[in-house]
Design goal:
The chain is mostly helical. Helix content is 65%, strand content 0%. It is elongated, with a radius of gyration of 31 Å.
Amino acid sequence: MAKRDRCRLFAGGKSGRELAVARRVQPTTHHSRRDPQFVADYAGGSLPFIPLTVPLAEARRLFMTDFSEPSSVRVFGKSLHWLAAGWTVSIAWLWIASINQALLRRGAIPDDFGAATVIAGLVSAFAIETVAILMVRWTGRAPRPGLERREWRQAFWWSAVPNALLLLTVYVMIAATR
């Protein structure tokens, strides 16, 4: 028996063309085939657009929250808090070192008490913290307290290397001026 005959026998005696017409799975859309912006997923037509009819809170619960694993987006927002804290500590260390250095070199505290360093550092830290607050507000809290603590620990380790690099940079800046 030839392959064509076996296919017809399996399809109930209908040819491939008859079968495709009889079982039209894909509905036609309002797009014309001559439209240059129209892209069909396959020769039979395009996928219809079905709007999301679920409320946003329900969609967030169903699709955006995995109750067993930490959310990478929430962890990123929390790591920005740690980064802002590390930035503030680095600026404080740099400011104390600059005051100390002025005392050693000139024997007096600078007139402006190193205000430029403090202001520039705190404005940057405030900007990082603002982004962190907005990110945490946008993502929300973890569904369980244990998962929340786990995300904070993971965020600490995510920000450990950037904070270490900040502290190393301050150390190199201080060591280079001695």
